[in-house]
Amino acid sequence: MGSYILKRLLLAVPVILGITVIVFLIMAMIPGDPATAILGSYATPENVAKLNRDLGLDQPLVARYSIWLWNMLHGDFGQSFSLNRPVIDEVLERFNNTLILAGTSFVLCTVFGILAGVVSAARQYGFADKAITFVVLLGISIPSFFLGMMMILIFAVDLQWLPVSGMYAIYGGGDLPDLLHHLTMPALALAVVATGVVARLSRSAMLEVLRQDFIRTARAKGVKEGRVIWGHALRAAMVSIIPVLGIQAGFVLSGAVYIEIVFQWPGIGRMLVDAILQRDILLVQGGVVFVAACYVIFNIIVDVAQSLLDPRIKT
Amino acid sequence: MAKLTLTRRGLLISGVAAGVLMGTGLPSMAATPPGVLVVGQIAEPKALDPAAVTAVNDFRILMNLYDGLVRYKSGTLEVEPALAESWDISDDGKTYTFHLRQDVKFHDGSAFDAEAVKFNFERMLDENHPYHHTGPFPLAFFFSSVDTIDAKDPQTVVFTLKEPYAPFLSNLAYPTGLIVSPTAVKKFDKDFGRNPVGTGPFTFKEWRANEAVVVEGNPDYWDTPTSLKAVIFRPITDANTRVAEMLAGGIDLMVEVPPVALKEFQNDKYHLVEQAGPHLWFLILDCAKGPFKDKRARQAANYAINKKAIVNDVLEGTATVANGPTPAAFAWAHDDSLDPYPYDPEKAKALLKEAGVAEGTEVTFYVTDGGSGMLDPVAMGTAIQADLKAVGLNAKIETFEWNTFLGKVNPGLDANGQHVDMAEMAWMTNDPDTLPYLALRTDAWPDKGGFNSGYYSNPEVDKLLEEARTATDQSKRAELYKKMQQIVHDDAPWVFVANWKQNAVTNDKVSDFTLQPSFFLLLKDVTKA
After folding, report:
1. C-alpha to C-alpha distance for A180 and A178, rounded to whole angstroms
2. A29 touching B (Cβ < 8 Å)
3. Residue of B361, B373, B323, B284 lying closest to B490 (CA atoms)
4. Cβ(B59)–Cβ(B175) under 8 Å?
5. What is the pLDDT of residues B425-483, one digit of tens each?
6. Which ipTM score applies to this complex?
7. At B147, phi and psi to the nearest 5?
8. 8 Å CB contact of A94 and B210
9. How close is the nearest chain A Cα to the Cα of B249, in Å?
10. In this complex, do A170 and B7 lie within 8 Å of one another by their Cβ atoms?
11. Considering only residues 436 to 465 of chain B, which have any Cβ-Cβ distance to chain A shorter than 8 Å?
12. Using one digit for the tens of pLDDT, what is the confidence trace for B42-71?
């Protein structure tokens, strides 16, 4: 097991290095530069050249890339021009906020998705199955940002049950109940689609398992139906559900961008969008590399978890 | 039976989870106490160092934390004393002597004096200044005419200019001229932008990244102190979310209300405030190449476009029709007698015919999808395209993201192997000199470092603008600017489309709020129940 994990980690190094090259080149190639973005209407060639010099952007590409990579290897992601603070501070803070949001959504979609899938499968073609399938289809079909806006109008503007946006109350607050209060709508809006996907795939995974011999054997032995489903079948089905969860984790992370904009959640997705529009090169690069690295590591964890469940996968 | 238990358990789990998430029993809206004003901003500020920032969004906070030597008289764009009680200008227009207000202290307790003023401007302008590295200072060129700054005595500071430069005073009233505490810059160094210290009506309390900037009323303010306890600036980038926050009571004041949302606020619960500003939305026409080389074709474009319809229908009344290159907000320099080009497609057709522009001629039209002061550029571009089509010009629209757009338009419409007949553009300025000087002179063609991307050239305009910038007498300057407006209006190097009216909404707890023509947000005199 140890050598498997080590191998996967070593393989991740070139992947991340490749990402640094790609994101660096993209930022270097897109039209517009930070000086133009900062100066706006006042971007005369002279002012732009001076500001680029002040920002250290007048050096050749290779030099800029090497400096960036070298500094990053030393834990220095540089300073954001548009926010005037170290990139790593901003990225960590924002990523943490996104993790709270995406993590909650992930838990929600896992719990409700598997629950719905298992119930559906256990009562195939029954009323519960049809009702769940209908709701799931509806959930998958609604774009999350639209759902988010509708939720704001209903629950925040009309009913005034929940706050419109932000992560904490602007005055007072700042504790866990306050956070949960602000988290409810964005987390639900973000979880809906993923829940649907997990539910559908859990259902088919369960149906496949339920047809197998060991289930019939268990039932014939007189094992209680609850135990058959939750104990025997679900455990076997998890082997095909877990990779789906891995994909959904990536989905909620990237889907968080829209939700973060609609609900003004101070997460990393919104940060990256703003940073790209501002041509805040170091912030974009640092943010993308950080997120990509997390994604790679997360995938390794998923693979390891899968191989623990099913020893055949270990290579 | 077993299956049923299952479902029940599922229901139970979901119920508990939902309950936990809803944070049961919490009051939904922690209403802000009296005297605390929550402002919905359009973005997170970059920094609270006035010398280092360029965005109106940041200025809205800065104007409440700092003072400049001079400021705009309320409701106008004319300067009046602020930290400087008075000033003398030498006859040659090159020496400005400012007499500073006594007993003004920065929020950190250090004294405001001539040395502090000197420190401020040298930090920006002198590359060898020990605190120049706290920049970059992108708008330092506002003061590039300054040669030396002398602190004659603690209450007197003398600016010597390289050449006479009339907009100097109004540039001092611009946020870039706000005075920061030298002691605080030395203490916080590069972090000063997150630890601002000024002399203004509000003192900085805290900046919670991506959440809020909190400032508190300064009871020791040298001018009448504010009655507000605190102001909280919240960045809410999405306009729909900002509107929802306003409707839900999460903010007390919101700026830049999207035109489509205005009707939500036209009732007793809200006050809607509007103010036209020093903004111009125009089309740059290529005066060097293509159909618009001919003045008659450029005039035809001005006649062809239905500006009233754009302002009323596309912009829902959030702008007024522009009559020339100088916005009406510069009341003292604006020629009120100049009528906007009326909407007259027949006249446009006749002029095009005279200019020998065949019906169906194709023109390339650069449109942006957003950008500062650009209002609703895609919808406006489409409306303009339709109007031009009606007089026989086929505008081919190419749309670019704002920074890309600037990168294509600023170097010139015929630069880098492209030929563009027209491009959208908008400017917001603080002096009637700025826009025409940077974008209409022959010496402001892009290859000379200016913004005259359409290659307009009229020696008389050049002369008038040079003269106006060196005249120290305001009525003399006004006369020159008015003459310039008449010529440019007739030459029509641009299609003059609209002047933006800034708007804001407050709820009924807020009183005494007004918007300024400078587009600055001044909150000192606002009260909140």
Report:
1. 6
2. no
3. B323
4. yes
5. 999 888 999 999 999 999 999 988 789 999 999 999 999 999 999 887 889 999 999 99
6. 0.80
7. -95, -60
8. yes
9. 8
10. no
11. 438, 446, 449-451
12. 888 888 999 988 888 899 999 999 999 999
